[in-house]
Amino acid sequence: xxSFKEIKEKFDQLSPQGKxxxxxxxxxxxxxxxxxxxxxxxxxxxxxxxTAMEKETIGKVYKKGIPGTPNGKVVNSIIAxxxxxxxxTWTLIKLEHLAYRGFIEFLNEYGGGxxxxxxxxCKHLEAYLNLxxxxxxxxxxxxxxxxxxxxxxxxxxxxxxxxxxDVFESATGISVNR
Length: 178
Hints:
Order of helices and strands: HHHHHHHHHH
Shape: elongated
Distance between the termini: 55 Å
Oligomer: single chain
Helix content: over 70%
């Protein structure tokens, strides 16, 4: 596989029309590439990622008819694509929020699930809490968010919550007190 440097040198050798043609091909390569370029160059397509996450998590758990099972690879892919597209930090917070809640809701609603769901719920809860801690400058707002998460965890009191409680307490310093 060629290095970035080799590719860049070849790109620099293209005529202006050649660069434009290549850019059109790159733009048309896939839906993901279009979204990536639109976000990087125009901004503001964060809602596409949020909609995709809602559909993959909560949308599957509470789907009418036969419910679906959230796919951890798809969830992680949505977050990775959003990061690469440089979405706002608040969009990343919303994505992590939907991710951890989707896995918790599935475990709570159906009394279990794939073994990895507990780990995925913990991973995304921790990412969510860490993003809130680092991005929310208002201490009162941060405390309010942490209290909402604590209440949510208390409402989901079942055998799957022990590890979530540990993650919450470790990330926030606030005890769940079951």
